[in-house]
Amino acid sequence: MATTTLSELKPRQPDLALDQIIKVAIMAVGGQGGGVLTNWVEDCAHRNGYVVQATSVAGVAQRTGATIYYMEMAPASDRKPVFSLMPAAGDVDILVAAEMMEAGRAIMRGFVTPDRTTLIASSHRALAVSEKMVPGDGIADSEEVIAAAEIAAQRFIAFDMEKMAVDAGSMISASLFGALAGSGALPFERESFEAAIKASGRGVEASLRAFAAGFEAAAGGLVERPQWGQTKSDTANAPRGPSHLVEKWQALEARTEALPDNVRDMALTGLRAVVDFQDLDYGAEYLDRLDQVLDHDDPGKDYELTLEAAKYIAKAMAYDDVFRVADLKTRGSRFARVRNEISPAEGTQMKLTEFMHPRAEEVVGIMPSKLGRRLSASEKSMRLIDRLVNKGRRLRTDRLLPFAQLYILGGLRKYRRGTLRHAIEKEHMERWLEQALNYRKLDYALGVEALRNRRLVKGYSDTHARGLSKFDRVMEGVALLAGRDDAAHWCKLLREAALADEKGDQLEGALKTVRSFAGQPETALQN
Amino acid sequence: MAERSFAKEVQKLKIGEGETFSGEGILALTKALLEAGVGYVGGYQGAPISHLMDVLADAEEILTELGVRYEANASEAAAAAMLAASVHYPIRGAVTFKGPVGVNVASDALANLSSSGVTGGALVIIGEDYGEGSSIMQERSHAFAMKSQMWLLDPRPNLPSIVKSVHQGFELSEASNTPVMLMVRIRSCHVTGSFEARDNKRPPFTVKDALATPRSDYARVVLPPMSYLQEHDKINNRWPAAQKHIVENKLNEMFGPKEAPVGIVLQGGMYNGVIRALQRLGLADIHGETDVPLYVLNVTYPLVNDEFFEFCEGKSAVLVVEEGQPEFIEQALGAALYKSGRNISLHGKDMLPMAGEYTGQVMLDGLEAFLRKAAPEMLPARLRAPNSEEKPALPDLSKTVPIRPPGFCTGCPERPIFAAIKLTEQEFGKHQIAGDIGCHLFATLPPFEIGGSTMGYGLGPASNAAFDGGGEKRSISILGDGGFWHNGLSSSIGNAVYNKSDGVIVVVDNFYSAATGGQDVLSSRADNPTKATGHPIADAVKGVGVKWVRQLDRTYDVPKMREILKEALTTDHVGPKVIVASSECMLNKQRREKPLMNKAIKEGRRVEKPRFGVDEDICTGDHACIRLSGCPSLSLKKLDDPLRDDPVASIDQSCVGCGNCGEVADAAVLCPSFFRAEVVHNPGWLERKLGNLRSKTIAWLQDRRSSTRIEFART
Q1: Distance CA A326, CA A338 (A)
Q2: Rounded Cα–Cα distance for residues A145 and A122 (Å)
Q3: Domain assignment of residue A395, yes or no
Q4: N or C: which terminal CB in chain B sees fewer CB atoms within 10 Å?
Q5: Which GO terms describe its biological process (chain B) (predicted)?
């Protein structure tokens, strides 16, 4: 090999003009208007006497997939520069991420480096399918991305540009463009950015509004955490109703004063939920059950058991039955919320259609428990009822008759305590509570985890049945584990496995593991 | 109507000598064709050249004015076959399709064309779909050039070079009587830039002239013994003629100093990436002035050994930068060096990876490795003895950041079809399902995970042929309308009829070739002034002999779709069971309807706008609905409610009210959380009165109940 050849050439001095190239990458999700944003940036750079080259990868990426737009620019001179067609790791000056996880992807790919990169990210989330389809909570943690961004980026700007754009009646491309301008990362005046928007001709006013909002926020160097939820619990705290009921409520509220400090808030929330579900007496029942758990609790453990009981007893008591759904669907507050969400313009009318699909199980569930039990024991009757009721029903609740149907059903909740469904739910709850308290005697932490397993019961029809079966299987696993030091830990793992996929494959795997060591004397305890 | 309109941009095609053209790569290509006096153009859409087809379609008027024939060919094979017009006639013709899959489809015609040889310049513009953003298997079109003896151009990825290569391609084709492939990569198709325009040129000899004075010469027909002669003609005459033309016209370029210890041979398309790496190594300036000599192969096939040897003169080592595998160029150059007895080290895939895209980092690492080995003294001191640069430790995000593959758009009419198939599978168990090319292939991804193979455009049902004999459970195959007309009618449907297939075929008819950008096909429902549309797929299917055909005109009807599927899977009928599921592509529909709707609202006409919503109190956060949907507008939100562990479903304002949520919730008996809200704009007098009366009554009932119980004001 002729590797020893010596060159007569001396290494050249790096071309200082290379530092003038500004490299901008935009990482977006298909449909976010990354192309429009690219055109604006390009136009703006042209206005400032720069040569620009932009590229994108259209392909199937435009269908909701992750996609990158890339631009390079430099002050124009008599000779054309040679620009790259794609971003390189460690060689990007400005990274615009139109969504939080795309910012994460940019960091992972090395496009964000502390020596040079300004990272401008919208803090909102466009959830990927893999996050949404998990039966539990599969949403990726934006905090992890923010933590990484704070290390990786030279400058980091993040706020909810999606909301900003929607509020302005525009697209996120406009608020991103505003944030890019406001960040000062490009050496151009605000007017030239706005001129690019004006020249593009469509939806200019709205775009300029979103641009301005983005500009101001970025100029302030904002880093904002992603925010979830619009329901503020404090606004929901005030009871409304006839005064004699409010008085009675206050008495119940006073009872919660006797609970440990850290339990009180949850107990109040739970109390509200069960009273809302049934009535004040039901609320008293709830507090009785809670007191029962409190008797078994340990102050040394910060009353964790009662805290979890306050949450999950409320959830168990406020199950979802036909009355409940009918009641919720016909409430004034619900109508107001829908109106708020859809925000129909002045002078318009709104039609409202509900999608119901009752089955024999639901019908039998609202029957008096004796009758219901008898019917559900007979396959023939169930088939007959199913034939009568089991079909998709679309109810126009903006119309009087369908509304009245649901309204009356909702009113029948007074009779709920006598129904089959209530009997089943009550039985199930009591068995669960009893089991949990038994475990508590043996192992405090396991008792707490057993209470938390109630999280698995949710959904309607088949989904509900699947949830119940998962709950049962986890509780079976817990029975095997009881008495071991790591029982609570394994109980938690089982529950998490149950929430990871629909069919319960992961749970089955976890149970297999549990069976392999539990129930046998001290084998797996070594590690 | 295609997804993206170039109606405005194509006006730029009219500019002439002395003016500067600026825009995207695909527009530049079209402009170059017009400047080169092309006589006919055509092709088949597909990334990354879909937009080139759209540009041509939108420019049809300009083309016609110039006497240029534009044909939206039925397939790549049809496009390549059209180049037959250049065999006998001195007419320049150009077609475009994606590579290498399009070239696969076209290869029969291309091989025959190459054997015949051409009189007029014949250009195949190939959008090489390789690397990031590609939608297909990773292969190279290069092999086709080699096996058929077509010449392959791979120009530097900037507008002036791409435009120049169009002219050079025609000239080379005519000088060597050989069709030429002009390759543009994904990013070059959409790269922006500018070039000095020339006047458009009317073809000196048009296709109409040819029809008036027909020619034929059996020596050009691929039949023995002429085909044997044609092979010798390729080797003895056309090849040397091409090489001579390449050298004399300097189609390949050399940059950098003449004297240097090392050099780099590269495909033209790699030029910007190589220069960037050299810039980062301190060996090139902003304008691309380089210290390392470059031999840029704007023609990657055939190679010209003498030119290469000249470049090697005085060098101890040469690096070949050739993206993709196998390394055809490196092998050829290596063999040439060896046979010539030269003592020079040849590097390539030992420094750069054999497979995968040559991204910025890959290129930087490869060039640095080569220089470190072959000419370390050229590297800046910093690189020769790198100080341990401190890189901050970053948290590992690989488990946090979710993958984001493409999926069905909001309101896509294909979603309910696959929801119905998934529900059917929940009832009858998993089936042998074959997919096809097109948007519907996204169904193989979560949440549907339906289908396990894709063999090629229009080949879905054909790829289930082994199962045509039937068995305990019938096989199901999916075919899109694009694939149906491309190849599916004969290769899949005809095949199934002839072989008495027992399978179920679902034809997804969304009125467009949607995956490639919404181009019209034969069965499109829209009026197209220059093309014949409105030919129903069901008629075609019946025409080739399918007896069991079911037409579904609203795919959002999930129960109906499920019922038809059930029938298809259980009927006694002998022969293929074909379901044509038709609903318009929502992307196109929205683009068409939205402006009309807004106009109607402004004009005071009555318009209903549907949207879906989820009652957050009723949703328990199980997400079963999402596992049957995956709609971008059906997402999750976390409630500020300590009793809720899991996020609840939520529909954002991008919802188009297609109805899938409600249908699926109903068909799968999921939950009563969904509601549809239809906002009625400009309601009539009676409707308004009645509506107000209803809401007042309802509000009264609601207040009445509220006043008898404790409620907590939730907003």
Answers
A1: 15
A2: 12
A3: no
A4: C
A5: small molecule metabolic process
Q: Do B317 and A2 touch (CB under 8 A)?
A: yes
Give the separation between CA A31 and CA A63, rounded to whole angstroms: 7
Kindly state whether residues A191 and A311 are assigned to the same domain. Answer: no
Q: How close, in Å, is residue B652 to chain A by CA atoms?
A: 9
Please report which residue ranges of B536-620 form alpha helices under DSSP H: 537-543, 558-570, 586-602
Q: What percent of chain A has pLDDT over 90?
A: 83
- Across the interface, do A145 and B702 touch by the CB < 8 Å criterion? no
- Position of tokens 């095949």? B495
For residue B126, the 8-state DSSP code is E
Joined tokens for residue B383: 């690189």
Same domain flag for A254 and A190: no
Strand ordering across the sheet containing A393-396: A393-396, A349-356, B674-681, B607-614
Domain B16-248 has CATH 3.40.50.970: yes
Containing structural domain, residue A74: 18-219
The angle subtended at Cα B169 by Cα B166 and Cα B170, nearest 5°, is: 95
Nearest beta carbon to residue B632 from set A3, A64, A331: A64
Q: Can you tell me which residue has the tokens 């463009």? A: A177
Rounding to the nearest 10 degrees, give the CA dihedral for residues A99, A105, A110, A113. 30
- Under 8 Å between Cβ of B130 and B140: yes
Q: How far apart are CA B550 and CA B300, in angstroms?
A: 51
What is the distance between the alpha carbons of residues B518 and B552, in angstroms, rounded to a whole number?
A: 21
Report the pLDDT value the prediction gives residue A57, as an integer from 0 to 100.
Answer: 78
Tokens of A209: 């509004």
CA–CA separation, B103 and B32 (whole Å): 22
Find the residue in B nearest to A131 (Cα).
Answer: B402
Question: What ipTM did this prediction achieve?
Answer: 0.94
Does residue A440 share a domain with residue A305?
A: no
Could you tell me which residue, A234 or B289, shows the higher pLDDT? Answer: B289
Q: Is A371 inside any structural domain?
A: no
Task: Answer yes or no: is pLDDT of B227 > 80.
Answer: yes
Q: How far apart are the first and last CA of chain A?
A: 55
pLDDT band at residue A59, thresholds of 50, 70 and 90? low
Domain count along chain A: 3
- Residue B616 banded pLDDT, cuts 50, 70, 90: very high
Residues A212 and A250 in one domain: no
Output the six-digit token pair for A276.
């809302």
Q: Which residues contact A295 (CB under 8 A, 6 or more apart)?
A: none
Chain A / chain B CB contacts < 8 angstroms: 466
Residue A43 lies in a domain: yes
Picking from A293, A303, A299, A233, the residue whose alpha carbon sits closest to that of residue A262 is A303
Q: Is the pLDDT score of A60 beyond 60?
A: no
B279–chain A nearest CA distance, Å? 8
Query: Are B207 and B40 spatial neighbours (Cβ–Cβ below 8 Å)?
Result: yes
- CATH class of residue range B606-706: alpha beta
Interface contact A407-B515, CB threshold 8 A: no
Is the pLDDT reported for residue B217 higher than 70? yes
Task: Examine the domain organization and report whether A97 and A195 are in the same domain.
Answer: yes
CB spacing of A7 vs B691 below 8 angstroms? no
Both A194 and A242 in one domain: the answer is no
Nearest residue in A to B269, CA atom: A85
Query: With respect to CATH, is domain B414-588 assigned 1.10.30.50?
Result: no
Confirm whether B253-383 and B606-706 share one CATH topology: no
Rounded distance between C-alpha atoms, residue A259 and residue A19, angstroms: 66
CATH topology for B253-383 is Rossmann fold (3.40.50)
Q: Which of A30, A183, A48 is nearest to A117 (CA)?
A: A183
Amino acid at A70: Y
pLDDT of residue A443: 95
Phi, psi at B354, each rounded to 5°: -65, -45
Selection from A446, A507, A512 nearest residue A481 by Cα: A446
> Which percentage of chain B shows pLDDT scores above 70?
98
